[in-house]
Amino acid sequence: MTRRTRVTVALCGVAALLLTGCASDGGGSGGDGDRTPPPPLKGTPALGKPADRPDPNDFNGDGYDDYARVLDAEGGGKDERDRATLVVLYGSPKGLLTGSPARLRARSGDEFFTEPHRADLDGDGYTDLVVARGESADWETFALFGGPRGLGAPRPLALEPGTRVQAAGDFNGDGRADLLDGGRGGSGDINAESPGQDPAAVLLGPFDRAAGEPAGSIPLDLGQHGYTSPYEAVVGDVDGDRRTDAILFYDFDAEQDDSAPEGLTSIAYFRGDATKGLVPGPDVRPDLYESLANFDTIRGATIADMDGDGVGDLVGASQVSSGRSASGRNPGRVTVIHGSRTGLGAGRAATVLQFPERRGALWGEAPHVGDVNGDKKADLVVSDLEPRARTGGEVTLLPGDGKGPVRDRAQYLSPLTGGLPSRKGHPDVWSGFVADALLDVDGDGRDDVVVHADEWESGRRGSGKAKHYGGEGQARTHAAFLVLGGTDKGLDPERVRYFTPGDVRGETTLK
Asked: What CATH code would you report for 285-464+472-510?
């Protein structure tokens, strides 16, 4: 099974990412939110080795998945500064090494960091991390190359200024990792600083590690007659031809624009191609719109083999336009559009998962696919930011049976689940309890769920006053991360590791 986990990272030009320290562990007592957090787990990751097909979640090839995330330190009071830091936690037999993380700080609070992508760019058998940093539309793309000791220092890639890497994959099927540059701008792009448009391209691997140059590039027309450019891409093989396909998302406002061309679409499907990189796929727009349409923007999508046929399926979260949930709002849902040898949606009818009797409008947020119980079948993990008035966040595990997620075997975890650790003796119920990643951090063959809770340690036991959840990558002073261990029976809240932003970076506010 191929796992795809979306993470957010940042980078800064410093030396290699290495962990130091000595191993330690700790336990805790059970109870309803009063479990004592174990101390940060220190240690040095094992030396890894290269692989013919390296695991995209493992930077050092030691068999344990690694976690990467950007954390934002905020100024206090009237201090509006912020500063981003990349944090990399390496996996080990005991889980994530949280006591001695690798970290890189941004050079200034004005710099932003794009979404990272994991791929073996230079073909050395280790997974690398690709990310860009900069201000406004001026950014540079870097690679942090993997190796037996983990990620090295960031090295600039020799790409055109402003290149916007949106995905990594093998789009032409030659066995080497490529990068997708989605292009920039357009006359109707609401985020463009000028009406001109820079074309998209597939940047072909392998990349030269020393020079940072791709082996070549293939220009693409993804701009819809020069009007707009995709702002996000979800990639995977949905037709079983061993080439990476792409679902592209666009953001534009053409209702009052007489110059807008006909046939604009906010979602597009492109197939990997041996000579052209990506070509338009068969039209599945009705299915795509039905599965991914929302009131404002997409709430998460991924591509993974949900039904065990060897072909990737599109898993997307959406809100329906009719019907009411138990909370009196439109219920959230997750739709699986099945891939097939003849293309996306050309085989089985779509699978729709919905819980209107209990779950709220935001159920299905940020889907993650992996194997939590170790049975080699795809399991689905989704989040819900407002399932019921009292919880303020919930994570749902839907185990797979080889044909897809099984609704009747669903497992729910929330801030009200007994035994979860908190340094203040209890978590804030309104913490924004959200699944952030699905990784096998201890190498036992079962994926673990990393949960981010934005206000876990605020000390307001269900006061309802902390109903903000922050943006992607945000880590406030009261935030906490909980790593829920996978077992053969699902997620075990008693088998949990806990850490705060302070544990992995040494600061949560600027001084």
From this structure: 2.130.10.130
